[in-house]
Every structure is written in structure tokens, then in C-alpha cells.
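Whiteboard transcription, Tuesday session. T.W. wrote the C-alpha cells on the left side:
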């Protein structure tokens, strides 16, 4: 099965599960630039569960829209477990969704460092009072591959959590 057919099948399963369980979801994306939100809203009926999708790409957007503290970004960086946690916690307050997802990372091909290489992506998921922060190292691949791998990982995690 090709990658695109596989991802479409996964989205379809998640779509049905979100509707069946009446679970609302909101997303705050950085390095994926709205790709997860786009996939989640690609199917008719997604308005039953999809509440909000924010692309907080810049540090200013993270600070001004998601209320991530500037001190936190200055200390740990936008690509960090701490920033990802703050993004998902504050998204949850804004959206009131049952499930909230935050994504921050380095999609490349430039911008990586030794400590934060291209392909490093943090995914935060908050369901109820539980928060999961998942560190991913997708490797130095093409930007679109890192973005698609991140979306696929999110969908798989959401299928397990819902």
C-alpha cells in the first residue's frame, strides 16, 4: 500500500472514531504548518469534532496566541519538550476540546543544530488531565517527509488515545 493510501485510510479511521466517540479536537502546529489540521478537516463531517487549528509558526505567535512565556522560549527554545507542553496546555484552555495536540520541531533542510537536529519533532497530546509529550527523531530527510511522518505519528497516537 502506498504511503498516501495508508495515511488516507488512517485518517478515515480516526475520523469515524472521533465522530463515534463524540470527541472534539484542536491542534496547534508549528513545523507542520497546518498539515495535520488540513488532513483532519479533509473529510465531510469533520465539523462534528474539529474545533480549532492554529499555525503558531513564529515565536511571536506562540507567545501572543498560545500564551507560551517568552522566558520559556528564551531558556529552552521553541523546539523543546517544555515549549510543546506549554503549547498544548494553553491550547486546551483556549479550545476547551477533549483532545488537544501541539507540534513543534525542525523540519529542515536548514535550521538544525547538534542538540536540535533536523528531524527533531515534539508532539504534545492532552486528553483530560493527562499530557503526553513524545520526542521524535525522524532523521535528516526531506522537509515534506518529516512533516508527513509527524502527521502520521500524530494520527497513530490519537488512534491509541481515543
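and on the right, the sequence the group agreed on:
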Amino acid at each position: 500500500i502506498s504511503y498516501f493510501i495508508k495515511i488516507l485510510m488512517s485518517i478515515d479511521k480516526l475520523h469515524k472514531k472521533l465522530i463515534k466517540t463524540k470527541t472534539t479536537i484542536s491542534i496547534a502546529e508549528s513545523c507542520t504548518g497546518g498539515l495535520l489540521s488540513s488532513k483532519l478537516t479533509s473529510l465531510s463531517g469533520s465539523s462534528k469534532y474539529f474545533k480549532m487549528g492554529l499555525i503558531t509558526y513564529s515565536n511571536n505567535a506562540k507567545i501572543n496566541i498560545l500564551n507560551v512565556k517568552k522566558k520559556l522560549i528564551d531558556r529552552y527554545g521553541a523546539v523543546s519538550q517544555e515549549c510543546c507542553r506549554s503549547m498544548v496546555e494553553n491550547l486546551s484552555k483556549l479550545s476547551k476540546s477533549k483532545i488537544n495536540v501541539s507540534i513543534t520541531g525542525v523540519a529542515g533542510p536548514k535550521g538544525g543544530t547538534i542538540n536540535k537536529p533536523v528531524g527533531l519533532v515534539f508532539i504534545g497530546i492532552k486528553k483530560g488531565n493527562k499530557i503526553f509529550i513524545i520526542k521524535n527523531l525522524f532523521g535528516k530527510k526531506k522537509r515534506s517527509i518529516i512533516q508527513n511522518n509527524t502527521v502520521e505519528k500524530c494520527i497513530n497516537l490519537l488512534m491509541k488515545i481515543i
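Someone added at the bottom: The CA atoms of residues 119 and 138 lie 5 Å apart.
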